[in-house]
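Lab meeting, item 3. Inverse folding demo.
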């Protein structure tokens, strides 16, 4: 079995990977990086970069001397520690380290050095592939692993739509401005719930509090039970991808209405109802209200899709195939 270094962690993904790899018999070291200046504002943040690089030197030395078979660094700019080590390494991009950092000339220069030197570049959502032009030979989609324990526990598929949940952060990037005009037109169906979470939450609670019940976010261990209270879920309306929240809704067996760019999922399209604005949301909900068979079909298909694409087992298979050169598993 291999000796593996996982450097840095983003949203707990590296922690999950360490758990999976150790369970498969590999020897895994998790290595944190110093975060000096990470939360500072520009231009002070830029001035601190030499200090951050100096702080990375002990880690680079540890990687160089650690006799690792695999070095896997999370967050694209942090991949510079792999460059500094002189070792072969994998790097994993998570989102803004591509689409935001590439707009900054300093980070863009660092990131391109990392991309040029990395053996393989993982990206966690299919829309990020567009930022890896010129690196197609080493870019690989690596869907985030989702802990399905609890969330995917069996429950009956909905047979009607009388409880509707808006399951997304109240944030402009999620397109919530396209969702709430539909909710006033759907108040006749029964109960509508949204999360009191995000920069726009207070504004929407004031504007739509008569039609929508706002609830505080809950601990992750309670998400499965929470989702199963509802008959149908509305997800993000702008990004064209399934974020963790949409994936968890599918895993819980809830039919999902969301904006989807089908071209990003050519091999295994997710079983969702596509919508991009208020009229389409209203149309989708009204259609599902009168189609209990479709509700049941979407419930089953959603769970199956998540297990195929985001289960721990599938993630481990993809990781080992990328690390050791085996053909990636087929869904």
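The presenter then showed the designed sequence:
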């Amino acid at each position: 079995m291999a000796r593996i270094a996982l450097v840095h962690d983003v949203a707990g993904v590296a922690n999950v990977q360490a758990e999976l790899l150790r369970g498969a018999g590999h020897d895994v070291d998790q290595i944190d990086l110093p975060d000096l200046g990470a939360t500072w504002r520009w231009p002070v943040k830029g001035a601190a970069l030499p200090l951050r690089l100096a702080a990375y030197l002990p880690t680079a030395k540890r990687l160089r001397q650690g006799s690792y078979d695999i070095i896997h660094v999370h967050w694209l700019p942090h991949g510079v520690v792999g460059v500094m080590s002189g070792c072969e390494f994998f790097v994993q991009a998570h989102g803004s380290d591509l689409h935001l950092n590439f707009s900054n000339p300093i980070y863009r220069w660092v990131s391109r050095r990392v991309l040029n030197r990395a053996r393989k570049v993982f990206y966690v959502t299919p829309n990020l592939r567009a930022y890896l032009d010129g690196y197609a030979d080493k870019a690989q989609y690596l869907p985030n692993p989702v802990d399905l324990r609890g969330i995917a526990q069996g429950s009956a598929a909905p047979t009607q739509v009388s409880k509707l949940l808006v399951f997304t952060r109240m944030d402009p990037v999620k397109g919530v401005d396209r969702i709430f005009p539909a909710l006033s037109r759907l108040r006749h169906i029964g109960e509508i719930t949204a999360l009191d979470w995000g920069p726009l939450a207070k504004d929407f609670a004031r504007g739509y509090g008569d039609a929508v019940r706002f609830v505080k976010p809950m601990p992750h261990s309670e998400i499965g039970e929470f989702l199963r209270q509802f008959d149908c879920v509305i997800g993000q309306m702008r990004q064209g991808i399934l974020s963790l929240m949409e994936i968890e809704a599918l895993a819980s067996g809830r039919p999902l209405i969301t904006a989807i760019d089908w071209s990003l999922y050519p091999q295994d399209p997710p079983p969702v109802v596509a919508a991009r604005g208020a009229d389409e949301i209203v149309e989708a909900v009204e259609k599902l209200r009168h189609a209990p068979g479709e509700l049941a079909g979407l419930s089953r298909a959603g769970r199956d899709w998540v297990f195929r694409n985001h289960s721990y087992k599938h993630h481990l298979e993809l990781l080992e195939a990328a690390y050791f050169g085996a053909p990636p598993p087929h869904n």
